[in-house]
Amino acid sequence: MKRKILCLSAALLLISVVGCNKQKTCRCSVRGTQNVRIIKIDRGECEQISLYQYHTALDSLEVDSLVCTGYEFGIDSIFKD
Question: Rounded to whole angstroms, how far apart are CA atoms 75 and 72?
Answer without folding.
Answer: 8
